[in-house]
Amino acid sequence: MKSSSGILLGSQKIDIFSKKKTDRLQMHWSYLFAVLFCLFVGIFAVWERVQYVRIGYDIQVLKQDQEKLLQEKRKLLLEYNTSVSLDKVEERARKELGLQVPSANQIFYVKEIRARAKK
Fold first, then answer.
1. pTM, two decimal places
2. What is the pLDDT of residues 8-42, one digit of tens each?
3. Quick check: 52 and 42 in contact, CB under 8 A?
4. Can you tell me whether residue 59 is helix, strand or coil?
5. Cα dihedral sign for 68, 74, 79, 84?
């Protein structure tokens, strides 16, 4: 008797490694792979969309922060410009430092005397 991949039972031969069984198994693996691939692509697409939405929210928050900072900058520039005006400086000098406008006898003029170059 020959050695084959089948078992002989009575007049009927049963093939253990029948082509139909291996084809079905390959078909099942192909379907499983296709389903898993589609599932992976779907999950990736959803994740990507979630990231787009999250980044959109982050951009909106940053734009609001930028607008608040620009308003604060304008306010500080206005405050700076009013604080360095000559009237404000004179007022602070009088009140905080006790300075006054000098009288005529307190003013001295300094004349520059240039030394003649020796020849």
1. 0.45
2. 555 565 555 566 667 777 888 889 999 999 999 99
3. no
4. helix
5. positive
